[in-house]
């Protein structure tokens, strides 16, 4: 450190995130980048927006939101337990999320649940009820039950679905396509096939 120029030493004292390495380079502890021992390079880096963003992230205290906003499984993200949202690990994004309407409503619901001694369930999980549970708990008929009751009430005959595929296969549809018609068409097809074969040989 003593062999560095005076202006570079004073710059390093003003910016404690820069440290001198064994290989005579300067390392930034915020992003682990190494710079040559050049004051111009360091000043250019510190004047840029990347350094300002890194410094703001390092100085921002994420722990003030910690009971509800925690580290995420996604890299460089945080996770909000109240809204079940992933948030970028950027101070502006966290502040915007915390000051948003969705987070404030969820926080009010959480505090109400704590006062009542009830377990808090996020709104997104409340909306994802299973269809059978929802129908059974409320005593309402499911969609298929409603359709079946409509068929019975309409007075129009509808085929029963209980037979399945077997009932379809037993119907030969002979009333629509008489046997003579099918035989004539089949013979015509064979005759044309033979003619095409003969034309190809000649």
TrEMBL record:
Pfam families: SURF2 (PF05477). This is Surfeit 2. Residues 125-172 are annotated as: Disordered. InterPro entries: Surf2. Residues 143-153 have a biased composition (Basic and acidic residues). It comes from the Eukaryota. Residues 160-172 have a biased composition (Low complexity).
